[in-house]
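Researcher: Here's the sequence for the chain we discussed earlier.
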Amino acid sequence: MQGSAGGGAVAPGFDYESKKWGAAPLAPRPRFMNGLKLRYLLEDLASVHGKVLDVGCGAGQVAKAVKRARTDLDVFGCDISHAALAVASSPDAGGVDFRPATAERLPFAAGEMDFVWIFDVLEHVEDPGVVLREVHRVLKPGGGFHIVLPLEGQPRTLYTLIGCGTRWTAKVRHGGHIQIFSAERFATLAAACGLPVVRRRWSYHGLLQALDVAYFSWLDRRGPVSGSVEDMAVARRGLMGAAMRAASATVSTAAWYEARALRGVPGGCGHFTCERGSGEGAAKA
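Model: Thanks. This is the structure I predict for it:
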């Protein structure tokens, strides 16, 4: 799973400058681990024009993929990690304007953005409401917001069965997850911040939940890594790298079709489409 530091306070001892998640190329196709996330985002962007923002963009794979697919959009990306932004801009930024910033204080004027998205960030921040109110601030009235959110508190998932965040804390140590969300917790919070959910989609059903738990449990034995599985597979050379890329593509493809088949069933990851209300009061709730 991709993750990136969007905010200030994080898990004790978690070093976001050592993480460069999201450097691997990305396309909205089954063999890419974040391909389905990108596909759902591009569906939401289909009728959008103007300025769009990736909050917690990491090493830039999603922002660059959006710019490739929608060259007409002015794409911006923000992240707290200077190391990740350096990767995003090397050898070039792919037409994206990358800026250092926390999710709690975005360097844009009120109502400047036509659309905002966040992938795998809200679980990292100390006060998710502050982040959502900041998204509300920079969006135009009626602007869209798309968020991909791990649902480690979602009922009837492997995460709740093993006590993710309480009895099992590997994702706190190796992923920086200091918030545990269910779909209902997020929907309630988003509505209070003026960003009511208008559409829900799901992924991370049985296969990826099991692999996610296995991977982070393995990190407890191996130690921390600096990127995602897909990032490491792309960077690795030789036969081992080829094997890792083949395995990653196989798992991604299987998970894509599992999620599409079970798209009406809540899973361990939510893809939520929200819309900014016209009132200003909710932004101060």
